[in-house]
Amino acid sequence: MTLNAAVAAVTDRIIERSKPTRDAYLALIRHERDSGIERPMLGCANLAHGYAGTDEDRDAMKPGTAMNIGIVTAYNDMLSAHAPYYRYPEQMKIWAREAGATAQVAGGVPAMCDGVTQGYPGMELSLFSRDTIAMSTGIALSHGMFEGAALLGICDKIVPGLLMGALRFGHLPMILIPAGPMRTGIPNKEKARVRELYAEGLATRDELLEAEIAAYHGKGTCTFYGTANSNQMMMEVMGLHMPGAAFVNPGTKLRQELTRAAVHQLTKIGWKGDDYRPLGECVDEKAIVNAAIGLLATGGSTNHLIHLPAIAACAGIVIDWEDFDRLSSAVPLIARVYPNGSADVNGFEDAGGMPFVIRELIDAGLMHRDIRTVAGNDLADYGKTATLDGEALSWVDPGESKDDTILRPASAPFSAEGGFRILAGNLGRSCIKVSAVERDRWTIEAPARVFSTQQEVQDAFKAGELDRDVVVVVRFQGPRANGMPELHKLTPPLGVLQNRGFRVALVTDGRMSGASGKVPCAIHSSPEALGGGPLGKVRDGDIIRVSAETGELVALVDPAEWAAREFATAPAPAMGTGRELFSIMRDRANEAERGGSAMLAAMGW
Predict the structure, then answer these.
(1) What biological-process GO terms show up in the record (predicted)?
(2) What is the pTM of this model?
(3) If you average pLDDT over residues 209-218, what whole number do you get?
(4) Whether residue 387 is found in the same domain as residue 433
């Protein structure tokens, strides 16, 4: 199938725009491959320190001829998604030996749970945890002890952070290894119903807690299609997993064999063999475009409009929101997974999952097939379902969708266009996810009510002050103001207002997460309010138009009055819960469209 013209044009646009930085990046990783630190050049004392922690593998490591795999792990047992990684390193060492290689845990990275910190001060550390993870990955791989790496991580900031750090060591072959989603708990609609009842005071805290525990009940990734599961989707369409690895449940034989295969594959793609596949060459412009297309085709997380530009930048590639917007007009929405539908990711996997999505998009000319993956040179390998034939791992055609309320072919999509829009106007540049928003709510025009914190919104809701058509403006939530926390706790009250028949929208320079759903939310507004962004001029009662139909984000205020207005004063930076430790990151962070990163800003992005 010929590549879609819009996809080809956007890819060419990115390649041309990125040429100077991509060339510089490729020169860097080739220099690191040829002249950087590697195990054979380390001094004897250095090597002794590197070997001292191992007994069984020391003699195998000494000649320096076989690959030594560095494991970078986000294991902790406070995160359900990362708890399964507990025994992965010891298993992976065995599987490495099977292939004549060795493996060591190179380092751990922090992995916080946005679900735990949501709505509380710790959430203000969340976005910058991604930079911290990237730098921690850099530290882990800096020893020159490894000829390849396995990256163990799943959740919101962890996969982007791992990949950002790993790309600065892009001369090494690397594979990302997921652990899979937990099994299905109570239906997501039931969980959302209880949340809204609690927001209205019609359910008790005990009832809410029981519902939440029934939803988040075991080891594995949360089952809604938020940022964590969007991460796994992107790694599949970029070819950085073993094919079909994204959504296989933990604790299964298939999951174990996919991880074993990943370790064995790493040993085959090192620089001393005939099939060298460095990470920095696998993650090229086509792979980045595939990730954006995957997000649009599946209604993935809005957080990746921040994360994907940041990942791309670490490989010398420049992608912006205009690229997403242009792709969205060409890429159909072929999946509905909660919060954009009723099914969770287990239902999505049962219906055909990522193999079906990838096959459909390739066959429709909507995804780059000719990318260099960790498993081969054809993304069509990822359009097959992983299965066990007895004890042996094999891949088979996914067939037709097993449930067309969850997955549809590209020829008969849920929507002819993707789930994202870019908005612009005198309130700056923003993005909106509309895949779960009813079409009659794609345009909201109503008076503004302005807030500076989530708590202020909740207090006003409880006092009945928002029982009307309203555009809720929550400002001073950008990277430099307070670390750009997700405002997910606003979902239940805004949903209740909409259920009451009011026309409601949210406008913010903060994030709303991959769990954003039925209420139209103009998020990531740039430039942010702190430092002179236009949200700082909005006043209560201003008529605001939020329109995914026309691409507008506008305060309908007389231009002369708007120009004369002074900016509101930002609240003082909050202290406590470690937030003061990240002040240097807040001070240096760039805009959301460029990644919302202090680290990238320091690198000149």
Answers:
(1) D-gluconate metabolic process; Entner-Doudoroff pathway through 6-phosphogluconate
(2) 0.95
(3) 91
(4) no
